[in-house]
Here is the input.
Amino acid sequence: MILQDTILLFRDSIVMNNIVLLILIQSLISAGFCYYIAGLKNRSKLNWLLLGFSFGLVSLLTILGIPKLENHRKSEISERKTRKNVRIFSSYAVLVLFCIISIYPVSQVLTVSLRPADRLLSTSLEIIPDNATLSNYSALFIKTDFLHWMWNSLLITATVTLTGVILAATAGYGFSRYKFIGKKAAMQSMLVTQMFPATMLLLPMYIMLVNLGLINSYLGIMIMYSATALPFCVWQMKGFYDTIPSSLEEAGRIDGCSQFQTFYIIVLPLAAPALVITALFSFMSSWTEYVVAAQILQDTNLWTLPIGLKSFESNMSTEWGLYGAASMLVTVPVVVLFLVLSKYLVSGLTLGSVKG
Here is the structure.
């Protein structure tokens, strides 16, 4: 180990030449010193002279062996770089493969939306067919209630998202900062609700909405969506608040801030990544949901986009062109939202799950 460290320290060529020169001088000095000692002790001067030169020769051979060791080290470095490059290439290959798997269905939907009439299947592999047309998109806006369905979806989704963010931000803060009777039971009960699909809760919640007279109403579907999204959102916000030091709030209180001011001015801006995740989860839970909406919104004037798209399908035929065009337009708000908020996604997903 000492020799290798010395080699690594003096591997530069200029330093190597200096080392060789010093070793040669050292050999001559050693030989002269041994010759002088031999004269004083009346010993064989030749043996002592050979001893001194032997020491110099061993040192010189060690230095001459450095290039071989250096070449060996270079080969190890090159092998290490090769392994690293292979790992990077493999990672990118896997990512590209999954990207192709994810993009292929979207490209097929785009192709169907650009084909004339209702042609679903084709022997051509072109993404944009030769006879591509935008007639399906124009018919979607002119002959259907697509804009009305989109307005209903935007209204319901925006309300559910805003409600989820406000309630999860405040409830998560309370669970994170305060101790009260039933805190653990409440957190566990919210976690248990995530073990069951929303469709299992559909019957009891439907009966509750019937008794409250909220069937066929925006308020009824908003309550359903908020109730199913809130447990996860509260857990997410609570876990993120746990990562924020309480000393920041104490400093704010010393400066004269009230409890609400410390939450609104200090804690809430720091929790922006978790708020983004909460907003996205609430948005996605209501934007593309079909089963619950189909049971509660039976009036055609209250239909959302998933129910409206399902109306293109009938027992005898399906309007695939309109289906494809509407599907492409439905994805636009989601893609735009993810692109705008992408910088918060990674930190929000990781930090929110550190503690809980």
Q: What stands out?
A: The longest helix spans residues 66-114. The chain has a mean pLDDT of 77. The two ends are 47 Å apart (CA to CA).
